[in-house]
């Protein structure tokens, strides 16, 4: 089980600009921590810039990046890394994570593309992660991503993920919805995948909704409510690893804050169910 220190605790929510006025009007909400994409906020001033600074002084924040393109063929964007490092420090961001994918070559491709599951790619990506960690002066977490094709595949997804984490000596942002989506799209058992993950590297969890394109094809949209099988898989995750801070993602079709808060409360409810069994296991370990 994962008994290490976490950057945040409880249940969180991704902060979108459309939510800021509602959140500001309800300071007594039950959200334990917030997540933002730094690319959407670096250099932002005016009303939103001021509000963000107020929020990051009041609440724990983490950052989930969109444009690092850790698996991309082009050199790392050091100008962006300089801006990112200042942003993380200014807002006292507790953890920075990114996608184990790529999204650019000569320019941004506006999508997250799969890295080939090969030993060569492991070495290449791990080296880039180490350089980012050295540049930022901190560990980063890489997220297991959803993917719809596996070009050049010579390894299983779980083996590729574990080898990258080990060789880069970085942390894991575990996206439970992505595990579910990939298990359907690529015909593997989600619980077996979870059991093989390195528990000590998990820093926090993502959970989200998706879209069923067909019986055997799920698209990871973050644009719908979390479905029961994904809630069940989150419970299994707590059963395997203990209570880990968990964040609800909602990027499209964003409802009123009150409805999102209900889903966050569902995370908190599941966490409370597993808190006592986890503490009992720790005492008797």
Explain what you see.
There is one protein chain. With 285 residues, the chain is α/β, with parallel strands linked by helices. It has one domain: TIM Barrel (Alpha-Beta Barrel). It is 42% helix and 17% strand. It has helices spanning 20-25, 46-58, 78-90, 119-136, 157-168, 176-185, 190-195, 228-241, 257-283; strands at residues 11-14, 33-36, 61-64, 96-99, 102-104, 108-113, 141-143, 171-175, 202-207, 211-214, 217-219, 246-248. Helix 2 links the parallel strand 2 and strand 3. Helix 4 (119-136) runs parallel beside helix 5 and helix 8 (228-241) runs parallel beside helix 9 (257-283). The model has no long low-confidence stretch (mean pLDDT 89).
Please give the oligomerization state of what you see.
single chain
Q: In CATH terms, what is the architecture? A: Alpha-Beta Barrel
The helix/strand series, from N terminus to C terminus, equals: EHEHEHEEEHEHEHHEEEHEH
Distance between the termini: 10 Å
- Name the shape in a single word: globular
Arithmetic mean of pLDDT: 89
Helicity, in percent?
40-55%
If helices are DSSP runs of H or I spanning 4 or more residues, what is the number of helices? 9
Task: Provide the CATH topology.
Answer: TIM Barrel
Low-confidence stretches: none
